[in-house]
Specification:
With 209 residues, the protein is an alpha/beta fold. 36% of the residues lie in helices and 22% in strands. The chain has a domain of 97 residues: Glutaredoxin, CATH 3.40.30. It has 6 helices and 12 strands. Strands 2-12-11-7-8-9 form a 6-stranded mixed beta sheet, covered by helices on one side. The protein is flat and about 85 Å long. The N and C termini lie far apart (66 Å).
Length: 209
């Protein structure tokens, strides 16, 4: 608003400038000082008004409820359906370095272009089980698979409440935030279970029993 006042003043100056020989017309009308309301005072007044009316408390409660609900019921990952036909795919986690890796003294450890596979160093100790907890059939099948593999399964949700399952099963349950893992592994339908097979990951999409 201050800039607008400056521009208005400049424009008025341009209009009132006359050649030296022009007739002086004097003051055309009343002149008022440019005023600008204090933004902080305005915000404070609005907040006090909302506090008196109870609207501020209502908005705070709604914000808390939304925050709690987002934790208890994360947004389902879009684009993931239920398995209609069983299939098996493989994922090679190998990667190629795009730059040199050096130690703290600058000595070269791995040159750019080196291809590495993390499974040469670590192993997948538990199967990863992706499913949608909004489907009771998938939940039941997931429970059977956990028992079948003697608990060596990491349950990962793409939909539904992981908090409810933690309470019911008394085991850790995870949620694939934004579907990062599912997309990386190429999972487009659930339930799907991921296991290690040599230097690759095997992904079995299972028909719900």
């Amino acid at each position: 608003m201050r800039q607008l006042g400056i521009v208005a003043a400049l424009l008025s100056g341009l209009v009132l400038v006359r050649p030296a020989a022009a007739e002086a017309l004097g003051t055309v009308g009343p002149v008022y000082p440019l005023a600008e309301p204090n933004l902080l005072d305005f915000i404070e007044a609005r907040l006090k008004e909302k506090e008196r009316s109870g609207e501020l408390a209502r908005l705070q409660q709604e914000a808390r409820s939304r925050g709690t609900d987002s934790v208890l019921h994360p947004t389902p990952i879009p684009g993931i359906g239920s398995v209609q036909t069983a299939r098996t795919t493989y994922f090679d986690p190998s990667f190629t370095l795009d730059r040199n890796i050096v130690d703290d003294k600058g000595a070269l450890m791995f040159a750019a272009g080196t291809r590495k596979n993390p499974l040469d160093v670590v192993t997948l100790s538990k199967r990863l089980l992706f499913f949608d907890a909004r489907d009771p059939r998938q939940v039941a099948q997931a429970r059977r698979l956990i028992d079948q593999y003697h608990g060596k399964v990491k349950p990962i949700l793409l939909g539904g409440s992981y908090i409810d399952l933690i309470k019911a099963w008394r085991v850790p349950v995870y949620f694939d935030q934004q579907g990062v893992l599912a997309r990386q592994l190429g999972i487009s339908a659930v339930p799907a279970i991921v296991s290690q097979e040599g230097r690759r990951l095997r992904i079995d999409e299972l028909v719900v029993q």
